[in-house]
Specification:
There is one protein chain. This protein is of the alpha+beta class. The chain has one domain (49-203). It is built from six helices and 14 strands. Strand 2 (57-58) and strand 3 form a beta hairpin. The chain is globular.
């Protein structure tokens, strides 16, 4: 993971700080108090996943959100997952969850909770890949099941967000082969190439 100061510069360079209504000085000052190994994240209320995803780059291709997820920004933190107040916060102890590859989201969530870990939000996963592109690799991508969509009747939409690499097939289009992709999988399905990204905690400092 890049040093917090380098992460701050990355957010400034990409325009994320400006989108969040923050000055470069504010982002740098926040990063100055962060410990090594932590991930600096902008609150998704300030900069949502739909805005962050196109900032991802891989193989010269921009990231994108799949066309059948136009409601991506309505995916909110699951019950019991509270974000720190303020526009910036830190995530500790990131893990891609490779050991849970071939688990379903429904199986992974209680296991992560039992381990004292918290699943990442989609926006947090994008922040991770923005700062550390190697976190996303073929055969080892990850789900972000901290984000779910609650329907009008109170039940959860069966889609669970994930980040992976496009093969350029179907509606993605051949021109997007190898591009980073924000998509979804069914909550009951298993995929051998998707782990479950999580953190040990979130904090303002």
């Amino acid at each position: 993971m890049p040093a917090p100061a380098a992460q701050a510069e990355r957010l400034i360079e990409l325009g994320v700080a400006e989108l969040a209504g923050l000055t470069p000085a504010e982002v740098r000052a926040f990063a100055a108090g962060a410990a090594a190994g932590t991930l600096l994240a902008v609150h998704p209320d300030r900069v949502p996943a739909s805005v962050l995803a196109p900032l991802l780059r891989r193989a010269g291709k921009s990231g994108f959100v799949v066309v059948d997820m136009p409601d991506v920004d309505r995916f909110a933190p699951i019950e019991g997952l509270a974000l720190p107040d303020g526009p910036l916060y830190l995530l500790d102890g990131l893990d891609r969850g490779d050991a849970m590859a071939d688990w379903s989201p429904n199986e992974a969530l209680p296991a992560l909770t039992a381990q004292g870990r918290s699943p990442l939000l989609l926006a947090e996963g994008i922040h991770w890949v923005l700062q550390q592109p190697a976190a996303l690799e073929r055969g080892h991508c990850f789900m972000t099941i901290g984000s779910r969509l609650r329907k009008a009747d109170g039940t959860l939409d069966a889609r669970t967000p994930a980040l992976w690499i496009s093969n350029g097939t179907g509606r993605d289009g051949r021109e997007r082969r190898d591009a980073p992709k924000a998509g979804w999988c069914w909550a009951g399905n298993r995929h051998t190439w998707l782990g479950f990204a999580s953190a040990t905690g979130r904090r303002a400092y």
